[in-house]
C-alpha cells in the first residue's frame, strides 16, 4: 500500500494559517506558542509534513488539478470558470489580469504559503538541541526544506516574471519586499537544489525511508527542467552550450527505468511498484482521497481537442491521414450535434482509435466511453461524461465498475516526475547541443518502444529531430501539467489562437504578455508601493 505523508493536527495548527491570504502575515493568532511546539524530533517531522501539505490544499494547483494547465494549450479547453474547478477558462479566453482568480492568484499564494512554512521549520531547527535529533536527522530535515523552497520558487519562476525573494522567516521589519530579478531567483533555486542534492540520501523513491519525499533524483530532474527552460531565448531558440550542461546531470540519475506498461504509472494499485516514478503527490484512501475521477471523468473539466487526437501516429509510425493504416472517417458524423445519430457518431469516433499509437486509447476517451485495459476485473465499457468536443481524459481515470462521480473518489498519486521525462529531456538537450546523435535516438526510442511504437527513422536532421522530440513530449505526457510550460519555453503558445474545436466553438486567446502572469493585485495593494506590478499589466 502507498504510504501517506502523515500530517499532525498540531503541525497544521502551527503552520496552516501562515501565509494563507497574506503570505507575509506574522505570528497568526491561531498558531500555538513556539514554547509548546518544536519540542521533539517528531514535531519537526510534523512540521516538515505541513511544508508538503500545501499541494493538497484547495485549489490543489500543484496537485490533483495539474491537468488543467493543459487547458491553456492546444491539448484541451476548459468548460469551468475560475470560481469552480477548471481554474483556467477565462485565462484561456484572454482574461488574464492582476484581478484574475484561478491559477494567476492560486499558484502565487500556494507557493509563498509553502515557503513560509519551510522558513518556520528551518528557524526552529537551527536552535533545537534535543538529544532525539541526530546529525543525520537534522541534515535530512534541512535538506528537505531547501529542496521544497527551491521547488516552490521553481513554480514561481515558471509562472511570474519577477517575485519577492524571501529566504528567511519574515518579521514586522521585513514583511514587505520588492521583486527580485529573475537571475537572483534562478541563482537561489539552483543553490537550494544543489545543497539539497548533497545533503539528502540518494535512495530510490520506492525506499520506505524517503517514500513521499523529494529525493536527489527528483531534484536533479527539477533542476534540469529549470536549466532547459533557461536555455531558450525570447524567440524560442536554444543555446547549445547551456543544453550541453544538462545532459550529464540527467545521466547521473540512476536506479530508475521505464515501467513495462505506460498505464501502470497512473493506476493507483500499480504506482508503488512502478520503477519509473521519481516523485509524486501521495494519496491513500480512506485518509486522503482525491477527486480526479470527479473532475476529469464525471465533469470532463478538460475538453480534449481533436487536434491532440490527430497528433497520435498510426502503429507504423506515420501520421494519421498519411499512413496506409488510417481508417477513413465520416467527419460530418463525428462532429454532428444531432442526438439521434449518437450511436453512428460513436462508431465513427471509434475508427479514429484503430491502428493508432496505444497511448491514444490510454490517454483519451471518446463519446463518454471508458475502455479500461484491466478487462478481467472490470466491464468492457464504463460510461463517463461526454465533453462538448466528444473527447475527454482517460489517462487519469481509475478502473471502476461504475461511472466516475462523487461515489468513486479514488487515491491515485499525482505523478510529477517519472523516468520517461528524464529520457525525453536527454533527447531534447542532446539534440539542441549536438544534433541527432545516437544518444538522442536511444533515449527517445526507449520511450516509443515501451508503447510498441517503431523506432524513429535514421538520418533525421536536427530540425526534424526537434519536431519528433516535441511530438513525443506531447503524446507521452499529455495531462501531466507539462505541455503549457513546454510551449512557453519553445515560444509556441501563439498557435492556440488558431485552435477552434469543431464541436466546441469557444476560442482560446493568447497575447505576448501572457508568457508571464501578473502579480495578484491583492498582494500589490498590501505592500503599499514596495511591490510593483509587471509593466506588461499596468
Supply the key terms.
19 helices; two-stranded antiparallel sheet; mainly alpha; single chain; 40% helix; 538 residues; two-stranded antiparallel ribbon
Task: Please characterize this protein's 3D structure.
- The chain is mainly α and 538 residues long.
- The chain has a domain at 292-411.
- The protein has helices spanning 9-15, 41-53, 89-92, 103-127, 135-159, 182-199, 216-231, 240-251, 268-271, 292-298, 306-311, 331-334, 342-352, 358-363, 419-434, 438-450, 462-477, 483-490, 521-526; strands at 76-78, 277-281, 302-304, 364-366, 369-370, 382-383, 391-393, 414-418.
- A two-stranded antiparallel sheet has the order 1-3.
- The chain is globular, with a radius of gyration of 23 Å.
- The protein starts with 8 loop residues before the first helix and ends in a 12-residue tail after the last helix.
- The relative contact order is 0.13.
Which percent range describes the beta-strand content? Answer: under 5%
**Low-pLDDT regions:** 1-32
Query: How many DSSP E strands?
Result: 8
Biggest sheet descriptor = 2 strands, antiparallel
- H and E string: HHEHHHHHHHEHEHHHHEEEEEHHHHH
Read across the widest sheet, the strand sequence of neighbours is 1-3
* Overall spatial form: globular
CA-atom Rg in angstroms = 23 Å
Quickly count the helices: 19
Helix share, percent = 40-55%
What is the straight-line distance between the termini?
Answer: 51 Å
Class inferred from helices and paired strands = mainly alpha
Mean pLDDT: 90
Amino acid at each position: 500500500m502507498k504510504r501517506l505523508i502523515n500530517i499532525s493536527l498540531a503541525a497544521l495548527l502551527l503552520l496552516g494559517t501562515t501565509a494563507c491570504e497574506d503570505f507575509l502575515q506574522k505570528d497568526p493568532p491561531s498558531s500555538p506558542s513556539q514554547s509548546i511546539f518544536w519540542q521533539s524530533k517528531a514535531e519537526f517531522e510534523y512540521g516538515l509534513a505541513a511544508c508538503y501539505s500545501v499541494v493538497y490544499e484547495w485549489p490543489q494547483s500543484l496537485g490533483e488539478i495539474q491537468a488543467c494547465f493543459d487547458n491553456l494549450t492546444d491539448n484541451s479547453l476548459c468548460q469551468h470558470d475560475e470560481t469552480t474547478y477548471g481554474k483556467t477558462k477565462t485565462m484561456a479566453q484572454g482574461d488574464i489580469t492582476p484581478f484574475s482568480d484561478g491559477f494567476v492568484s492560486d499558484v502565487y499564494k500556494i507557493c509563498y504559503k509553502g515557503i513560509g512554512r519551510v522558513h518556520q521549520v528551518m528557524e526552529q531547527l537551527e536552535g533545537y538541541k534535543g538529544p532525539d535529533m541526530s546529525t543525520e536527522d537534522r541534515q535530512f530535515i534541512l535538506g528537505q526544506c531547501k529542496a521544497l523552497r527551491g521547488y516552490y520558487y521553481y513554480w514561481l519562476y515558471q509562472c511570474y516574471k519577477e517575485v519577492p525573494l524571501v529566504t528567511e522567516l519574515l518579521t514586522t521589519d521585513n514583511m514587505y519586499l520588492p521583486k527580485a530579478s529573475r537571475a537572483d531567483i534562478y541563482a537561489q533555486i539552483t543553490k537550494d537544489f544543489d545543497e539539497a542534492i548533497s545533503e539528502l540520501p540518494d535512495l530510490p523513491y520506492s525506499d520506505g525511508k524517503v517514500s513521499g519525499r523529494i529525493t536527489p533524483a527528483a531534484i536533479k530532474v527539477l533542476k534540469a527542467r529549470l536549466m532547459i527552460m533557461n536555455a531558450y531565448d525570447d524567440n524560442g531558440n536554444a543555446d547549445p552550450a547551456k543544453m550541453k550542461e544538462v545532459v550529464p546531470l540527467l545521466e547521473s540519475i540512476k536506479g530508475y527505468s521505464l515501467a513495462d506498461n505506460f498505464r501502470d504509472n497512473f493506476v493507483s494499485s500499480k504506482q508503488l511498484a512502478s520503477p519509473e516514478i521519481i516523485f509524486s503527490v501521495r494519496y491513500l484512501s480512506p485518509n486522503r482521497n482525491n477527486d480526479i475521477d470527479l473532475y476529469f471523468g464525471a465533469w470532463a473539466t478538460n475538453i480534449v481537442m481533436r487536434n491532440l487526437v490527430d497528433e497520435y501516429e498510426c502503429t507504423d509510425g506515420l501520421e494519421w491521414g498519411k499512413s496506409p493504416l488510417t481508417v477513413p472517417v465520416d467527419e460530418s458524423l463525428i462532429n454532428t450535434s444531432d442526438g439521434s445519430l449518437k450511436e453512428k457518431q460513436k462508431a465513427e469516433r471509434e475508427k479514429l482509435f484503430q491502428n493508432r499509437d496505444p497511448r491514444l486509447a490510454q490517454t483519451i476517451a471518446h463519446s463518454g466511453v471508458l475502455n479500461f485495459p484491466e478487462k478481467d476485473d472490470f466491464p468492457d465499457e464504463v460510461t463517463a461524461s461526454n465533453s462538448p468536443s466528444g473527447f475527454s481524459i482517460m489517462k487519469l481515470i481509475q478502473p471502476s465498475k461504475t461511472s466516475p462521480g462523487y461515489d468513486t473518489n479514488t487515491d491515485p498519486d499525482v505523478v510529477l516526475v517519472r523516468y520517461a521525462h528524464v529520457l525525453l529531456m536527454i533527447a531534447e538537450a542532446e539534440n539542441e547541443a549536438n544534433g541527432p546523435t545516437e544518444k538522442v535516438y536511444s533515449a527517445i526510442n526507449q520511450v516509443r518502444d515501451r508503447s510498441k511504437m517503431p523506432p524513429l527513422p535514421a538520418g533525421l536532421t536536427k530540425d526534424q529531430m526537434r519536431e519528433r522530440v516535441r511530438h513525443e513530449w506531447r503524446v507521452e505526457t499529455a495531462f501531466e501539467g507539462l505541455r503549457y510550460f513546454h510551449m512557453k519555453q519553445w515560444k509556441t503558445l501563439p498557435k492556440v489562437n488558431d485552435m477552434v474545436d469543431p464541436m466546441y466553438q469557444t476560442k482560446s486567446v493568447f497575447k505576448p504578455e501572457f508568457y508571464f502572469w501578473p502579480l495578484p493585485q491583492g498582494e500589490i495593494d498590501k505592500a503599499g508601493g514596495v511591490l510593483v506590478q509587471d509593466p506588461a499589466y499596468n
